[in-house]
Amino acid sequence: MSTTKQFDVVVIGGGPGGYIAAIRAAQLGFSVACVDAAENAKGGPALGGTCTNVGCIPSKALLQSSEHYEHAGHSFADHGIDVSGLKLNLGQMLKRKDTIVKQNNDGIVFLFKKNKVTFFHGRASFAGAATAEGYPLSVSAPANETISAKHVIVATGSNARELPGAPFDEKLILSNTGALAIDAVPAKLGVIGAGVIGLEMGSVWRRLGSEVTVLEGLPVFLGAVDEQIAKEAGKLFAKQGLNINLGCKIGQITPGKNNVSVAYENAKGEAQTAVFDKLIISIGRTPNTNGLAADKVGLQLDERGFIAVDGDCKTNLPNVWAVGDVVRGPMLAHKAEEEGVAVAERIAGQHGHTNFNTIPWVIYTSPEIAWVGQTEQQLKAAGIAYKAGTFPFMANGRARALGDTSGMVKFLADATTDEILGVHIIGPMASELIAEAVVAMEFKASAEDIARICHAHPSLSEATKEAALAIDKRTLNF
Ligand SMILES: Cc1cc2nc3c(=O)[nH]c(=O)nc-3n(C[C@H](O)[C@H](O)[C@H](O)COP(=O)(O)OP(=O)(O)OC[C@H]3O[C@@H](n4cnc5c(N)ncnc54)[C@H](O)[C@@H]3O)c2cc1C
């Protein structure tokens, strides 16, 4: 019988919240273990969670590959590059994606070794109440261990939400897992849910040749995005051929032998039936507390099934913390990481901090959409007096040289103090451009601060400076 191994900190879950918390805790001098259940195709460990295995990383790999394919087919000719005999090698595209995932999996194994984090491959569950040694935890096969922890950080992530009556089979009805591994381009692809994941996955398969129909329940498109930006996105996606239908009520979903039929009511209340070769369901994600035995120790969940935490990620149990997708707040990898670091620092008696007002959001479609802070509709609803300034990429020299002039940068600043309250970007490399806005908001910068900073020419970031100038109607190039 194996003896109980004792640790200062045990992290349950090796996704971005968990593995980063484990590394930071080890840096702070604690003895740390991380337990993760995910396995690769060969049954070995697959550290990195949803993000690395079936989320951020593989989706961005396929978005990049499919964008190259689309450019080669449609926009290279304009650059004077004639491509003949263009052919899709989907097998190679998926293999490249898998290689990138594996590099990330292996990278975390290396980081654990470097930081002396002990890794256990298996599922961890609470084995009973805390003793003098801490919380006893059992770890299932292949590790088969009993360990104890003075502090437990739960970072067990989330799972794709199913539609009632339409369980994922990952052959016809796909979650993100299946959507990232379709082995032949479906002629007709249905996507239920026009959120971030639905739009990203829909874009990948549209670029590769699918006719994509998106069915969204809400009457508005991208409700969390600034209205002006969402409207622009809607127009651009429609022009690309993404068929987005809002205000749909989904009815019976019936898988056949090689296709799946979806009965729904459109926004006009008309009964419709659509038949797809594959159907992706991307209607949100549910917190994952499966197999944790939370009830054994009385770990409290909230009414939506998330682990209940306070602003510092403390649960109702002493020395048990929870971070990432399994707790309230945006389901984003970088939010999970920030919480992981903050909790490790709090355990060490430091003042870890996560600023929820400056968490950037990105949708990696083409053009990309990125924002930080408040939208115009939020400011209006809160009765905050603001000034708005926009600058179109059409008037930016670098965007013209790139051949990607769609979209704009938009600044929202306090009408009295000029403090930046929100920055919204739709356009090329919005995911990178947003970092300047995040830094500015962290330092409570005014729009004038950005307007006075020298930006390299020609660069997309000049559009950011110009949008800041637009706050006071002083754009120089538009
Ligand atoms: C298709 C897709 C694309 C995405 N793209 C982005 C993006 O571009 N940017 C972004 O910021 N976010 C993106 N996300 C969201 C991002 O993946 C999540 O927010 C992030 O992974 C959450 O991290 P986490 O550490 O909380 O949980 P997870 O990454 O879900 O990791 C949890 C880990 O815990 C393990 N686990 C669960 N229970 C146990 C247990 N009892 N014992 C041991 N191990 C356990 C799981 O196997 C998993 O490995 C995307 C998500 C999807 C699905």
From TrEMBL:
Required co-factors: FAD
Keyword Nucleotide-binding: yes
Record-level Gene Ontology MF annotations: dihydrolipoyl dehydrogenase (NADH) activity; flavin adenine dinucleotide binding
Chemical reaction(s) catalysed: N(6)-[(R)-dihydrolipoyl]-L-lysyl-[protein] + NAD(+) = N(6)-[(R)-lipoyl]-L-lysyl-[protein] + NADH + H(+)
Signal peptide: none
Record field: transmembrane: none
Record domain Pyridine nucleotide-disulphide oxidoreductase dimerisation: where: 359-468
Protein name: Dihydrolipoyl dehydrogenase
Species name: Rugamonas rubra
